[in-house]
Amino acid sequence: MPTLLSLGHGYSAQVFARQILPQGWRVIGTTRKAEKAEALRAEGVEPLVWPGADLAPALAEATHLLISAAPDAAGDPFLAAEGARIAAAKHLEWVGYLSTTGVYGDHEGDWVDERTPPTATSRRGKARVAAEAAWLATGLPVHIFRLAGIYGPGRGPFEKIRNGTARRIIKPGQVFGRIHVEDIGRVLSASIARPNPGAIYNVCDDEPAPPEDVIGHAARLLGLPEPPEVPFEEAEMSPMARSFYGDSKRVRNDRIKDELGVTLRYPGYREGLAAILAAGG
Asked: Chain centroid to CA 259: how far?
């Protein structure tokens, strides 16, 4: 039985698990919170509360490894604590590391692809670059997936628009890429079917767009007025939210199509938002 060990079993990994469990997979997922363990178990995932749980048995039984945890000040948390044990798991057939297109830094709206050298300037972006290198250095069959902004059921603009807290933050020239969470799973499955250790893939849709366009379209789908415009300089945002506006780029996704044969179910935000709304999101 193919067995996936999911380190840091968050939003994207949970959706991926729902896609592969009906195909006969076994999924073991780590969580930091004991109260989340039962929710994972109810979805068919075998939970491990980590730190604390012994990863050795799960590593020994896993055929595939997916890492979703973000790096912290000490680097990748799993490599920092379990690096030698993980690197010794030479039986693994496939390893996937979920990174971010933030590693490319700011390109003032220009296009980037997987050949573009990472030039991250933010602390988080630099940490991701280091984590990518650390996983590739394990000698395992690692594949890097650089994800754009993730959205999907339970993670979209509709609730803020409904309750009146959404804003269209205007920063001229600002462009973001996005990816529907279900399409992340499609890319991961395609990579597992066609492994290419060391490969890097941009995981984004076909339509990078200014964030205010997405918010405005979501409001129109709801039949509500577009949220007010707020100049970036005047917007009240958390430091993390503000940092996202430090980078502007358009990210090419040709490789997931040409090499993995992926056809995105949601090639643009209009299709993705309509699907979320139709499903009651």
From this structure: 20
Task: Count the domains in the chain.
Answer: 1
The string of DSSP letters for 36-94 reads HHHHHHHTT-EEEETTTS--HHHHHH-SEEEE-PPPBTTB-HHHHHHHHHHHT-TT-SE
- Say what the pTM is: 0.96
pLDDT band at 280 (very low <50, low <70, confident <90, very high): confident
**Structural domain for 106, as ranges:** 3-152+178-206+250-266
Examine residue 167 and state whether it is found in any structural domain, yes or no: no
222 has a pLDDT exceeding 80: yes
pLDDT at 102 over 90: yes
Residue 71 has pLDDT above 80, yes or no: yes
Angle at which helices 77-87 and 123-136 pack, to 10 degrees? 0
Phi/psi at 42 (5° precision): -65, -25
**Is pLDDT above 80 for 260?**
yes
